[in-house]
Amino acid sequence: MSPTQPRNATCPPPISAAASSGDATLAQGPARNSSNARASADAVTRKVSRHLLGFLFLLFVVSFLDRINIGFAGLTMMKDLGLTSTQFGFATTLFYLAYIACGIPSNLALARFGARRWIAFIMIAWGLASTATMFATDARTLYGLRMLVGVTEAGFLPGMLLYLTCWFPPAWRARANALFMIAMPVTAAFGSAVSGFVLRLDGHLGLAGWQWLFLLEGLPAALLGCVAFCYLDDAPAAARWLSPAEKRTLEAELASASATREAHSEQTGLWQQIRSPLVIRFAAAYFCLVNTLAMVAVWAPLIVKSFSAGASNVTIGLIATIPQIATIVAMIVWGRSSDRRQERKWHLIAPMLLAALGCLLCASSGAPLVQLLCVCLASAGSYTAMSIFWTTPDQAFSPAARAVGLAVINAIGNLSSAANPLVVGWLKDMTHSYAAGLGYSAALLVIGTLIVVRLPGGPKSARHDAHDVEAADDADDATRAAA
Q1: From residue 166, how far is each of 123, 250, 281, 387, 424 by CA, in Å?
Q2: Domain span including residue 190
Q3: Which residues contact 62 (CB under 8 A, 6 or more apart)?
Q4: Contact 167, 237 (CB under 8 A)
Q5: How many CB atoms neighbour CB 240 within 10 A?
Q6: For residue 257, what pLDDT is reported?
Q7: In total, how many domains does the chain have?
Q8: Region labeled Disordered — which residues (predicted)?
Q9: First to last CA, the chain
Q10: Residue 253 lies in a domain
């Protein structure tokens, strides 16, 4: 291992495809047993899905809830603390600046210490930090507490994206990513309703409604961090719930994909890969996409309130669930479509354009029903695009560079998350409307789509190549296991 390459305890290199199969099997196995091997490999991957995705989904629910609950807290907190929209947006910007600054170090720590220990540690830390936000007394204390949440939560999403590549071969990643990331709209949906009801606790035990919100939605993260320490495994080789034959099958799947990446990236060092034009384009496209994700996550409750004059906070919370339900359906259907067709690029472009259209129409329409439908388009398009996006960047890195590379793309993209609340808050204060902020989001989505169009056809062809290699090696491994 090169001194510049981090030790990867999270996902140790799987056994090579050739070693797991044998030269004789490589020559004869695929032709004789490819269908049985594929069925065996798919069965193992489905078992992994059942064991991991539900739990990872739950972890992401509490993570995303701690990230977006400030949007609902703002319905009453802004008045209690005397905050302007610009100050409120700046608090969210500081969260993302801290999140960006600590993302790469956190992913390196995850690679060194392993997912089980590191994810457990950061969940406990951010759960306590999020809960402590209930003690904010003015803009300055809110700024400091939100930065602390950003520091502690920084490694979760890039770490989980890295972790998924250790368990799911490329042919399954759109579905795996969608089922994991569907936690975002699910959280926004039930979080909208739950947060609306929690705000009704205003005055109980001397606490404001927004204080109850941070208390009741922050502590579960710390508790689940303890559970994660006992439940997660760092890699397939350590999984006691997989049989030896299942481990070999899964490792052969992952080895073939790693071999494909190594063939294209091993000639260059870690930092050369990260500074490559392809990675810069991925990061720029993600920057444009994440802006709309931040817009939907932070400002959606306030946008709904702006065209639902006179509605209670509970009603606003219930209305805000509608776009998230549409998003959940879209992510499941579109992720399956992308995996079934083994196509990524146009499955990414289409939802980005729909999200841009939704933002533009929401900004220009004055009809509440039309605006609600447009928020549905913006939410479904942006979240669906995100789940497809993360199936492609790992193809640009060797396995040794993956931990840093994914964190770099996530960090650069989240610069947009840092800028969005400040820009949209300022535009709202200046224009007394969210139309300008929605137009800003639509413009960035169009720019991001143009960047994706100019990406090479690699995401699609690389997926096909990886899938073909995996099919052959899976057949070899199944034959060996049967023997």
Answers
A1: 20, 10, 24, 17, 38
A2: 33-245+273-471
A3: 123, 127, 217, 220, 221, 224
A4: no
A5: 6
A6: 61
A7: 1
A8: 1-34, 460-483
A9: 34
A10: no
